[in-house]
Automatic annotation (TrEMBL):
Organism of origin: Helicoverpa armigera
A Pfam family assignment: CD36
Transmembrane segments: 12-33, 450-471
Protein name: Uncharacterized protein
Alphabetical keyword list: Cell membrane, Disulfide bond, Glycoprotein, Membrane, Receptor, Transmembrane, Transmembrane helix
Gene symbol of the encoding locus: HaOG214138
Gene Ontology terms: cellular component: cytoplasm; plasma membrane
Compartments, as annotated in UniProt: Cell membrane
Disulfide bonds: 253-320, 281-341, 322-330
Organism domain of life: Eukaryota
Family: Belongs to the CD36 family.
GO molecular function: scavenger receptor activity
Matching PANTHER family: FI02050P-RELATED (PTHR11923:SF114), SCAVENGER RECEPTOR CLASS B TYPE-1 SR-B1 (PTHR11923)
């Protein structure tokens, strides 16, 4: 039979051990968890994150909506007051990414690579066929007119005659497949590419928004990505694009920064995130919006607000998206000029249906209806940096301005119209399998400290129990003499 002395000794021993162990683990578990997380997330040939990053295993889909101009006859006749568009689609393509030509730069903890992308049409997910005809602005006509805008009239008039030899007007009808991947032949483009020293420097024999891009190794350019090995907080940051740390914009707007959206360091609730988008040759700023739950995982959603593509009208720090000397090339807020990285074409990027943009854009187009669900959004789990959902949504527009002398370009009702060509939504969300992995990591993060707290509490209770037994033993032991004897108490009275 265990004596009370042994019992109290065991309780005190086990209680002390549990209190010390629990307290030590509560203190040291967070850095231990962070260390293990960094080991898993840091990009290296044998890290857990590398295989997921190199070839994204989660299904991705690109949804494309075209804006078909439905009142061309009225515009050509001069009776239209606005450009009227009809949105067609979505035309859905399954998208896959593979990182190729990898070069590890151990001296500065970066990785240089190219992003090879593939698209496959999914007719069962689409609203329409890639044989659907779309009528819109002829990009070749609009580009030549835009490039000639500063030339003398004596030069522009022959250009106008030349364009009219091959085109009746400034509109073009082609099917979805041709607008996107197959390309559209244009005799003007063929002739222009044969004449040296022309400002029209399109290095392709056809025009298509994704022409020669499907499976291309170098179309998106080279990326230099931080692996997080020397500074984990920079994990996933683009350090250079096309072997430079700057783009064509001046000032802060020309800095190459942000993540490509696939790999993030734990963000811990920063008010803003930066996504580097090679399609716009710049980064996009997303602001913290609200908490969300995806597959039962709590995250924070970031989205674009009215500061995106502002050009400095509302937010002075965004003025660098216009030339240093602001002129009529600096368009109202909400559209970013990407002509310098699109072979001089008057291409501008905005949110779909000119969401959050200056109302002047939508006022010239019939058929637009901007809603908040068209916004650019990204949700992250804060402690692991895991992307929970992505809805990358942008719109490609052509700026059509009346150019004196080039009459074929001057048919639109308004002299300065931003014409929407198409919008896209690249959407993905975490799968149940990857959500289960994230939940497992989060359980370790939260449950281990709770278990240690419980261990500490149990240890304290065992200590109290052991001390209670010890005190009770001391009080009731016959070998312990009372402090005052009975005779002393009687003598005192």
């Amino acid at each position: 039979m265990v004596t009370s002395n042994v019992r109290s000794g065991l309780l005190l021993g086990f209680g002390s051990f549990m209190v010390v162990s629990g307290a030590v683990m509560v203190i040291f578990w967070p850095p231990l968890f962070t260390t293990q997380l960094q080991k898993m997330m840091t990009l290296s040939p044998d890290s857990m994150s590398f295989s997921i990053w190199r070839e994204t295993p989660i299904p991705m889909y690109l949804e494309i909506f075209f804006f078909n101009i439905s009142n061309v006859d009225e515009i050509v006749a001069g009776t239209a007051t606005k450009v009227r568009v009809e949105e067609m689609g979505p035309y859905v393509f399954e998208e896959s990414h593979v990182k190729v030509n990898l070069t590890w730069n151990d001296h500065n903890s970066t990785l240089t690579f190219y992003n090879q992308r593939f698209w496959h049409f999914k007719p069962e997910m689409s609203n329409g066929s890639i044989s659907d005809n779309i009528t819109s602005i002829n990009p070749i006509v609009a580009t030549i007119a835009y490039m000639m805008r500063h030339q003398r009239l004596i030069i522009k008039v022959p250009v106008d005659v030349f364009l009219r030899l091959y085109h009746r007007n400034m509109f073009l009808t082609a099917n979805v497949s041709s607008w996107l991947f197959d390309g559209i032949s244009d005799p003007v483009l063929d002739i222009a590419n044969e004449i040296p020293n022309l400002p029209l420097a399109i290095p392709y024999d056809k025009f298509g928004w994704f022409y020669e891009r499907n499976g291309s190794l170098e179309f998106d350019g080279s990326f230099n990505l931080n692996t997080g090995a020397s500074d984990f907080s920079r994990l996933g940051n683009v350090e250079q694009w096309k072997f430079s740390n700057r783009t064509d914009h001046w000032g802060e707007c020309g800095v190459v920064k942000g993540s490509t959206g696939e790999l993030w360091a734990p963000e811990y609730g920063q008010p803003e995130l930066f996504v580097f988008a090679s399609d716009v040759c710049s980064y996009i700023t997303l602001s913290k919006e609200r908490e969300v739950y995806v597959e039962g995982i709590q995250g924070v959603q970031y989205s674009a607000n009215d500061s995106i593509f502002d050009n400095g009208y509302k937010y002075p720090q965004m003025a660098c998206y216009c030339d240093i000397v602001r002129d009529d090339n600096c368009v109202p807020a909400g559209a970013l000029n990407v002509s310098d990285c699109r072979f001089g074409a008057p291409a501008f990027v905005s949110l779909p249906h000119f969401l959050h943009a200056d109302p002047v854009y939508a006022s010239k187009i019939d058929g637009l209806n901007a809603t908040e669900d068209m916004n650019f959004r990204l949700a992250l789990e804060m402690f692991t940096g895991m992307p929970l959902s992505v809805a990358a949504q942008l719109q490609i527009n052509l700026l059509v301005r009346h150019i004196p002398g080039i009459t074929i370009n001057n048919m639109l009702p308004d002299r300065d119209t931003m014409v929407p060509m198409f919008r896209f939504r690249q959407e993905t969300a975490t799968t149940p399998e990857y959500a289960a992995l994230a939940r497992q990591a989060l359980r370790l993060r939260y449950w281990i400290p709770y278990a240690m707290y419980a261990l500490t509490v149990i240890g304290v209770l065992l200590l109290i129990w052991g001390i209670t037994l010890l005190v009770r033993k001391l009080i009731t032991s016959p070998e312990t003499e009372p402090i005052l004897s009975d005779t002393e108490e009687q003598g005192g009275t």
